[in-house]
Amino acid sequence: MPELKASQLVKSAAKTVAGSKTKHVTVGATAVGLALAAVVVASAGPWDASGQRKAEAHRAASQEATGGADHGRTSPGAPSAAPSAPAVLAAPGASVPGPTERALADVLDPLLKDAALGSHRTAAVVDAVTGKRLYGKSAGDTLTPASTTKLATAVAALSAAGPDHRIATRTALEKDAKELVLIGGGDPTLTARAKNPYDAASLRTLADATAAALKKSGTTEVTLSYDTSLYSGPTTHPIGPNENLAQVTALMADEARLDDSNSGPAGRAADPAASAAQKFAGLLRERGVRTKGDPGPGKASGQAEDVAKVESPPLSALVERMLTHSDNDIAEALARQTAIAADESHSFDGAGRAVDKQLDKLRLPLSGAHFADGSGLDRADKISADLLTGLLAKAADPAHPELRSVLTGLPVAGFTGTLTNRYEDPADASGTGLVRAKTGTLTGVNTLAGTVVDADGRLLVFAFMTEGAPGPQAAQAGLDRLASSVANCGCR
Fold it and tell me: Would you tell me which of 88, 359, 416, 475 could form a disulfide with 469, CB atoms 3.0–4.6 Å apart?
C-alpha cells in the first residue's frame, strides 16, 4: 500500500462524506477515506511531516473551539508549543514511543469519576503495538456490554468462517413432485427490493435464474415451499419480540422489515420466511412460472436437484455493515454462521458456545464472559473491558489480517453509523474524525470501545463501560470525552 499524506486522507474523507453523509453510507468506501484507516490497518507506511502538521492544525482548531482546553494532549508540565521539526506519524509497529501509564492516568482518572457515568464504570486502554495495558480501572470485571457484544461476534465469525465466506440462498427442484424449494442459508442481507444499495444477494436475481432454468426444462408451474431447517431452536430472541430484531430464521428478505428502512427499529413480518417465500412466488409469476397455492414450509430431500443460487457479499462486508450501523439482524446471523463453522447447534445457545470457543482459540481473556446472543440485546451478556480491548488489539495484529474488517467497520466519530450525531459537544468535539468506536446502549448501560491514533502516532485501543448512569445522553458524552482525550493525548 503506498504511503499517503494525512492531508490526502482528510481530503478523501471530506469528499466521501460530502457526497454521502447519511446513515446508509457504504462502509467500505468511507472506512478507507476517513480518519486514520490507513494507519489502523497496520500495513500502511508512515505519514510524512505535512500529515503531522495537519493533525496539529486539527487539534489547534479543537482547542480554540473548547476555549483552549487540550484534553490531556500533553502530560502535566510539558511544553505546549509544537516542535519545530514535526515528528513522523508512524504506523503500528514503528518506534514511536507510547504514552506512559502515569501520564495517561492523570488525564483519564478525573474524567472517569464523572457522576454522569453511573455507579459502576470500568476502563482499559491498550497499546496495540505491544499489547500492553496502559490504563485500567476494574478492567477484568464483567458488565453488560450492550451492542459492543458485536465485536465478539465479529471476531468469532471471521475467525471461524473466514472473511471471504459468502452465504448462499438456493432453489432446488423435487422433480417427481414438481416442488420447488427455496432454501435459506442464513443470509441476513438478502433483498427483494428493486433498489439494492449494498450489492446484496437479490431474490429478483434468484427468480431470474430459477425461472430461466425451469422454463428451459419445460416447467412453467410448480408448488413452492421454503426450507429453514439450517437453524434450530427458538426463532424469537430471549428478550422477546421487538422492533430491533426480526425472528431469527435462516430465510428472510430485507430483515423482514415492513417499511423501506435499512437499519434501526422497524415493524417486522411475523413470519419472515413465509413473507420472503411469498415475495419469491410473486417474482416467479412475473417471470412466467406459476405457483400452486401459497408457499408452505418444507425441507429439500437428498434427491432434490439444485436449480439456482445467489450469494451474499463476503463476511468481511457483512461485519463492516453490522458494526457501523449496529445491525442486530446481521449480528444474530453471524453468530449462527459461527456455530455452523464450529460444529455447534445452530441455535442461540449453540451460537453462544461457538463464539466462546472461537475466542478461546485466540487466547482472549474470557474470565466471567458469557454470550447469550450475538447482538448484545440480552442483558445476560457479560464482557470485560479487558476482553473488548483484547478483541480490538487482535484485529489490529498483523498476524490476523482476516480480522481487519472489525477495525474498518467501526463508526467514525461525527461521520458514520452510530457515531454520526455524537461528538457535537465542544467539550468532546476534538475526537471528531479521530475516534473510531463501537457503541453500546441499553437502559442504564452505556459502552464505547474502539481505536485511536494518539497525538504521537501510536495506535491505541480502548474500552469504557458503565452501568447505572442517570441519563443516557450525559453518559454518552462522558464516554466520548474519555475517547477524545485518549486520541489527543501525548501523555509522556
Answer: 475
Per-residue pLDDT reduced to its tens digit, 442-492: 999 999 999 999 888 889 999 999 999 999 999 999 999 999 999 988 787
The CATH number that applies at residue 35 is 3.40.710.10
Query: Do 14 and 79 fall into the same domain?
Result: yes
Q: Are 321 and 409 in contact (CB under 8 A)?
A: yes
pTM for the full model?
0.83
Quote the domain boundaries for residue 241: 168-313
350-407 tens-digit pLDDT: 999 999 999 999 999 999 999 999 999 999 999 999 999 999 999 999 999 999 999 9
Calculate helix-pair angle for 149-161, 328-341, nearest 10 degrees: 40
Q: What cell was used for 405?
A: 474488517
Q: How many domains does the chain contain in total?
A: 2
User: Both 83 and 189 in a single domain?
Assistant: no
Q: Is 240 exposed, middle or buried (0-12, 13-18, 19+ CB in 10 A)?
A: exposed
Q: What's the CA gap between 71 and 73, in Å, rounded?
A: 6
**Together in a domain, 79 and 173:** no
In a domain, 321, yes or no: no
Does residue 13 fall inside a structural domain?
Answer: yes
For position 224, which CATH number holds?
3.50.80.20
**Nine cell digits for residue 315:** 463476511
Domain end position, chosen among 281, 313, 345: 313
